[in-house]
Write a structure and sequence with these properties.
The chain has 306 residues and is of the alpha+beta class. It has one domain (14-304). It has three helices and 15 strands. It has helices at 17-29, 46-79, 255-258; strands at 81-87, 100-106, 114-120, 125-126, 132-149, 152-168, 171-184, 187-200, 206-221, 224-236, 242-254, 267-274, 277-285, 291-296, 299-304. The protein has a 15-stranded antiparallel sheet that branches. Strand 5 (132-149) and strand 6 (152-168) form a beta hairpin. The radius of gyration is 19 Å and the shape is globular. The relative contact order is 0.20.
Length: 306
């Protein structure tokens, strides 16, 4: 079964502030509760589970692709080359084992490569983690530029991630990520806007997602780094209900966990509104697991994400 993952999130523009006003009041009164033993709280009920699972599932498919793209991006910048083809198994990420990669980059300006990387799963292949992937993911490099602010030199690099007939376990993934990587005094921030996000199930039902995210990365090496996610998201669930989500305490993501196939945050808090229902979701205190606590109507309950 496909592993659901952390929720990719977006910033709130001025037009959306009213949507989240009630969230801020809830969060201000919320007392942080760490995920602990299931015996500490009662289990979430069916309606609560459906609301939380649905939004998490929508986000999981997009975040999964986003995370793979970062692994391939790092490899492509190192190797570069015109029309160079390599096996996905050459990258330390099991999800890419059955993919073929085409790297066609002009890296003569190393800070701002131009060209494309293609991740191709063909007509369908098993990624070794129980998921059947098919289709292609394109990462389009658009160059970059230096910027100077207050005598500090930084740079920005621009890419887009585009899905071409991409599916995971017969769920069709559509949309485009426009991304800006900002490097300033050793800090790396990745701004990513999801445009036209859509997940379609085999029965024809679908869910939508529009998002902007900020990912702050602390790099040690290509397989051992941690990220902090902030922002919010808007869309429509598979059941046709509107949802809105905002991160109220940065979601921490540990690459050591994602490499094991667990793409959930290890800590952090987000607030989710589905229709007229509000949930505060806590990812715990740093453990690499999929247990969360859900606070709604003044009651805190435990839930295990599938």
């Amino acid at each position: 079964m496909f592993l659901h993952c952390l929720c990719l999130t977006i910033f709130i523009d001025m037009r959306k502030l009213n949507i989240f006003a009630s969230m801020a009041m809830l969060v201000g009164a919320f007392v942080w509760v760490a995920c602990s033993s299931e015996d500490s709280f009662e289990r979430a009920n069916e309606e609560e589970v459906q609301d939380v699972n649905t939004e998490s599932e929508i986000a999981a498919y997009f975040n999964d692709a986003f995370d793979m793209g970062q692994a391939v991006d790092a490899q492509g910048r190192q190797q570069g080359g015109a029309n160079m083809r390599i096996a996905g198994s050459e990258i330390d990420d099991l999800r890419l084992n059955c993919a073929s990669l085409t790297i066609d980059l002009d890296i003569s300006e190393s800070f701002s490569p131009v060209g494309d990387i293609w991740i191709d799963f063909g007509d369908g292949c098993d990624d070794g983690q129980g998921n059947i992937r098919k289709g292609k993911i394109q990462i389009e490099y658009k160059g970059g530029e230096f910027r100077l602010e207050d005598d500090n030199m930084g740079m920005e690099m621009y890419t887009s991630m585009i899905f071409h007939g991409y599916e995971v376990n017969d769920l069709k993934i559509e949309g485009r990520y426009d991304q800006t990587m900002i490097i300033d005094e050793g800090q790396v921030d990745l701004l990513s806007e999801l445009i036209g996000g859509k997940v379609t199930w085999p029965d024809g039902t679908y869910a939508t997602r529009e998002s902007d995210l900020t990912v702050n990365m602390v790099l040690t090496n290509s397989t051992d780094f941690k990220s902090t996610l902030t922002g919010s998201a808007l869309g429509m669930t598979q059941e046709g209900e509107p949802y809105a989500m905002v991160i109220t305490e940065g979601l921490q993501v540990d690459r050591n966990c994602t490499m094991k196939g667990n793409l959930y945050p290890t800590s952090g808090i987000k607030t989710l509104v589905v229709g007229e229902k509000e949930y505060i979701i806590n990812y715990g205190n740093g453990q690499c697991n999929n247990e969360i606590t859900i606070t709604t109507n003044g009651q805190t309950k435990v839930h295990t994400l599938k």
